[in-house]
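Methods — Computational structure assignment.
A single polypeptide chain was analysed. Its primary sequence is given first, followed by the predicted tertiary structure written as structure tokens.
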Amino acid sequence: MPTIKLSTFRESPPKYERWHTCELCGSTRYNRVQFQFTSGSTEPTDGETLTGNTSGDTGVVESTVLYTGSWSNGDAQGHVILSSLTGVDDDDRTWGAEDEEINGSTGGNSMMTMTDYGFQKTFGLTYPMSFLIERDGKYYCKNHYNFRWYMHDRDEEVIDLDDDEVRHARD
């Protein structure tokens, strides 16, 4: 017998509920971290690996946005978006440490200082866990679960009637 976990359906998910993709919706989740920085002295290049000096968390630069200041004066401020992450805290989805120096694989040590923790962002079609049904270690949205498994789990067969049989039954 398959393992099935049904969730209680709610109108809206709790504030800190985890989200996941449906196995049949086919959406891929993309996890990124965004953090703001100050004291930027070396601009990170796209594809460069950044590492937190104290936390050891790593990520690959996807983009850098400069708000104010300049790299040459060492007072650049802005934000960085990272992918290929290691060290993201599963509970609060944070990366790095507050006021942490950031080192780069090509930019060197102390390229910039994070002003706060980096926060994980998830892109793609995801559902709150309370809206999903787990079967055999895979998650399905309610529509796809009903489409794929509902009759099978009830040991019922779908009744297939053609239009003539339906008209005759009504008469």
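Note: The chain has two domains: 4-27+124-170, 30-122.
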